[in-house]
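Why do we bother with holo predictions? Because pocket geometry can differ from the apo form. Keep that in mind while you read this record for flavin-adenine dinucleotide.
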Amino acid sequence: FLHSNSALTKARNSYSFITTPARSSSSSTFIASTSTNKNPDVIVIGSGIGGLCAANILRHVHKKTVLVLESHYLPGGCAHTFPIKGYEFESGPTILLGCSKPPLNPLRQVLDICGLNVDWISYSSWGVLGDGDEQWDLELGRDASNRPKFDSIIEERSHSPALAKTEFAQLLEKTLPLIVPATEIPAMALRADSKVLFTLLAKHTKSLFKLLQLPDAGTGPFDPYMNGPIHTVTDPWLRSWLDGLAFSLSGLEAARTPASAMSYVLWDLHRDNGSLDYPKGGMKSLVNALVSGLGDDEIRLKSTVASIDIVGNRACGVTLKNGEKLVSNEGVICNAPLWCLRDLLKPAESDSGNGGVKTLLDEIRSVNMTRSYLHLHVGLDAEGIDQSKLKPHYTVWEKGMVGDSEHVCSELNMIAVSNVCNFDDSLEVPEGKIMMHAYACGNEEYGIWEDLSKEEYEALKKERAETLWSAIEKVVPDARERCEVEMIGSPLTHERFLRRPRGTYGAEVESLFQDGSTSVDGLVLCGDGIFPGIGLPSVALSGVSAANSFVGVWKQLQNY
Ligand SMILES: Cc1cc2nc3c(=O)[nH]c(=O)nc-3n(C[C@H](O)[C@H](O)[C@H](O)COP(=O)(O)OP(=O)(O)OC[C@H]3O[C@@H](n4cnc5c(N)ncnc54)[C@H](O)[C@@H]3O)c2cc1C
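The structure, written out:
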């Protein structure tokens, strides 16, 4: 308790350092005065949630020294928060489940095992706004007769409700075995190499046995549950809903989303007391908690890694963009997106020990990207807005949910509107104001934004953001008159500030790395390019797995 309190103070201090322009512009890298100049055991490239989780597990559980190198001036990667005119806008995630009640997701497991505290706000419904007058609330959990509350939505919305309800009930039943890994196996049991079989055998034999009976051991896409042979969803409304739900998880329709992620989300949303969770104080408090778990000299911001130094076939450190060389005793964890990693691997033609690098580069070449994002962040005057009538989140289907010509996931159709001031009054916004974030999820084409003049670029931003504005207006009709801050983010903004090549949401499920192991000794990967892919719980899991592979099986088993 004492540790986490002092650590939080440290996080606050370091955050004020990060957000104070006068200080942050005074130096190109953040090197704490307490730096010991000793080589860390493990260097972590990137302070996304995956990298921060890996570093915390290494430090707190395995007692290794770490150094996290982040190219941005803010930590958190896609989950970072940025201050503008008194508002703390969130650049990405807001929707989480499995943080407030068991079974706890890997992210919450990391916080717990490392003694880091975040308070969680739970809520149990979000709004859905379709074309025309369509408007309904997705109520989570079960009703008095223990049926998913979602059944009554199906009843109202599907044209063949009896069929749709049966198909949904069967879907929940048939996907139940897939939640074994998420509900029975703690993240600490996993590791990014084949020795994972030993840890599972030693401590989780029954669950391992169940896992091995799953198709593809649970790592495949959801397709067999949407289109057969395991189960077929034929009802058009239900199919659209599942596609939309999947799309916000993976940037892909349901059939191409990881079956394990889909099954877990379906189970968790519709279980007894199903709810969603949000870190009180916003994503900043989550990132701060993870940063506070590291020593002052264990994270350096504005430190872009230019290459991973590989001698023979072993990763033994990195070179920064400013030429500084940093050596690690045991290896390197890369949390940067896979396409960034590609640029950090430079095989020397003359070195015959570079076979591992070439193999890894070939693997990365075969990874396909999902598309990008369009963002609209607004600060609004809240006078007269009755938040009790609003929801913390909306899914807006601008062109409808079930269309003949337009797929539910088609361009600028599904817009997420996040209204987190609805339930968290501790967020940083000026007095009497609220902030909203509307975004077109993972389907914005990067190509249309390339090679434009400044004028063309600004005009395109205005034009494309009209759809996002219209989504916000469905929630607050006079939003434009209330607006005092407006920021439109294109795929180029996404690429620049989230360091995501071509602004991508992440890797397509078919090309995810199955685990973080690589053909280069001492180089382990974590983040949303690694199974189970996109999402904070998933990247936390790959972070833990990467960290665990820096200790032997026996030590890992002793440590949890
Ligand atoms: C708009 C949006 C909404 C989302 N909503 C949700 C949601 O509601 N719920 C959910 O669970 N998930 C959501 N996600 C997905 C989730 O945010 C991501 O999957 C997750 O944050 C990715 O984390 P990561 O650890 O893989 O890496 P990233 O967040 O990509 O972090 C990688 C880090 O590496 C750094 N880096 C890259 N190259 C270098 C280099 N050469 N040197 C040093 N540092 C480098 C980057 O700056 C970055 O900080 C959303 C994402 C977005 C964009």
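Confidence is low (pLDDT under 50) at residues 1-36.
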